[in-house]
Write a structure and sequence with these properties.
mainly alpha, Serine Threonine Protein Phosphatase 5, Tetratricopeptide repeat, 3 domains
Length: 291
């Protein structure tokens, strides 16, 4: 008499959703003994296998795609699995099959765009992201992709436009607000940069990050040569700067407002580098936690 499985697909899926990939895969492997050609079981086994680095994850997803070739989600999962093995060309072919089956699916188009970009086809990647936005205006992953790809290509105005749209759709997203601030600063839109850094200060919930937003606002005021405004901001930054990163900035601004004192003020080059380093650190902190 056949042995009845001790668990169900629903439990395996729940375990996967909870991040317990090992137990999820154990359940699915047991279920596959009774239903070896069930595409849903094969798909879940492959997805959990990718998370665990299992050698047969791609094989299981390929089997699932062969059994249910019209399932766009399986092709997307197969593309992810192939990417995890560094098989970019095969991943591109798989995601293209997902797009063929679901032409207006923004998620598949975004995946395809990133694969195309990794293959060295930035223009095709950008065009694909624009297709995703036509299918779903305001799609956040597509906008993030456009911002990054335009920025990498040096098209800062286009990157800034994508950043503005991101902030419009996700006004509490501190990382997107920071993108807008940095890009506006880079293209010389100083009023916009100042407002964007102020917005970053409002929406970045980490108390230790306030100093970075203030440094960005100081930088815009220095570029506009608004010394008194820069002084007020430098005083505010000093109050929240526990590591003394604003000391030289404050000294430099004080010298411009009140005149040089007994000690020589830091050079403008040193102040500019200190502020640039502050922006780099702020960006690194956001990137590190996946904001």
């Amino acid at each position: 008499m056949a042995h009845a499985p001790s668990a169900s697909y629903e439990e395996a899926f729940a375990r996967y959703s909870e991040g317990d990939f090992e137990r999820s895969r154990e359940i699915v492997v047991e279920l596959l003994q009774a239903s070896p050609e069930d595409p849903s079981l094969l798909r879940l086994a492959g997805k959990a296998g990718v998370e665990l680095g299992a050698a047969d994850a791609v094989e299981q997803l390929e089997l699932a795609a062969g059994i249910d070739p019209e399932n766009a989600d399986i092709w997307r999962d197969l593309a992810d699995a192939l990417l995890s093995e560094g098989r970019i060309d095969d991943a591109a072919a798989a995601i293209e099959k997902a797009v063929e089956r679901r032409p207006g699916d923004p998620a598949s188009l975004v995946d395809l765009a990133h694969i195309l970009h990794a293959m060295g086809h930035p223009e095709a990647a950008i065009a694909t992201l624009e297709r995703a936005l036509e299918a779903e205006p305001g799609n956040v992953p597509a906008l993030h992709g456009l911002l990054g790809m335009h920025r990498a290509a040096g098209r800062l105005d286009d990157a800034l436009a994508a950043g503005r749209e991101l902030v419009a759709h996700s006004p509490r997203d501190a990382a997107s607000a920071l993108d807008v601030a940095e890009l506006a600063l880079d293209v010389g839109r100083l009023d916009e940069a100042h407002d964007a850094f102020r917005h970053v200060r409002d929406v970045d919930d980490e108390p230790e990050h306030e100093v970075y937003a203030l440094h960005g606002m100081i930088e815009t005021e220095l570029r506009r040569e608004r010394w008194r405004a820069a002084l007020d901001l430098a005083v505010d930054a000093t109050r929240v700067d526990r590591l003394g990163r604003t000391t030289d900035v404050l000294s430099y601004v004080v010298a411009h407002v009140f005149g040089a004192g007994d000690r020589p003020a830091p050079s403008r080059a040193a102040v500019d580098e200190a502020l640039a380093a502050s922006r780099r650190e702020h960006r690194r902190l956001h990137d590190a936690v996946g904001f």
